[in-house]
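TA notes. Do not distribute before section.
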Amino acid sequence: MEFLVEFDVAVPEGIPETEVKDRERDEAVAAAKLAEDGHLVRLWKRPLSNGTTCASRVLGLYSARSEGELNDLLRALPLHQWMTVTVAALEPHPNDPGAGRATSTLPAGSRS
């Protein structure tokens, strides 16, 4: 199943900058592992209404066997306790132009 996940990250006041940086680094490692395992398909920063982007607002396309599995994956993220997460389960649409073709445009064998 595929899921559209929206994250809004709000670091609580008083958290040392070193902890924030450590968790952000660990979050990047966790995201890379989720992508390697096929769970994290795509990730975007969401633009704000004034045209700027905010690193704390993120949209992700995830793949999991169930919403329960997805929730377990998200709860394991290092920034999870600072996140507000919204999950929308996605279903195939009969007019989807991408149905039946690979998500990536990289030739087979060129993915690392």
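Switch to the second chain here.
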Amino acid sequence: MRFDSLPSTNDLAREMAAEGADEGVSVVARAQTAGRGRQGREWSSPPGAGLYFSVILRPEMKPADATVITFAAAVAVAETLALDFNLAVDIKWPNDVMAGGRKISGILVETAVEGEQLLYAVLGIGVNLNQQDFPGELKETATSLLIESGRRVEPDEFLSRLNDRLEHWYRVAISDAREVMERWQKLSSYARDCLVRVRVTGGELDAVTRGLTASGALVIELADGERREIASGEVTLRAREI
């Protein structure tokens, strides 16, 4: 389903999923007036400047295992940017796709759970394509395909390239989560032996990354040698900035 403007593609897709829409039904908007990313952050969504896309998924997996969908989507976006558009990209845990040290794509997965059953997941993907500038604080943290490569790409063209990879990595996520995590780590300079600052509940930790677990938790090693698995949090800085 395509719209000229929506408050949020994820919000509409969630409503449709709750009403019984089939897996694979997607929502695409030319603009969003209330787009958002993880932790409720605003996602700048001006008309025609990016891909604003959500899809309904109904995987047969436990709710706790659904995090793999986020990592599969990050891999699909990163591969599309790198292989189809020749852009040097990186992935910052857990799901920010980066170019030139700034965020070019964000991914938001929202689920509905009943007991131990995953009813559905809504996968939202935003990719900055044709922005030449960003408002406010985003000037320092965001970038676009146009800024990084000088190439203007229509959202529909990008989506057509992305869809096959998204389908592939979603199927892999259902059958073998470890393969997704292995590919994610190959695409990410943050995954191993990188000094980072990680924001967790209660504060921040400076540590060296030691890869991902099969469920996508970030393994870190503290200065005293203690290792921890961080299932929920965010990498905020890396070595050159700490």
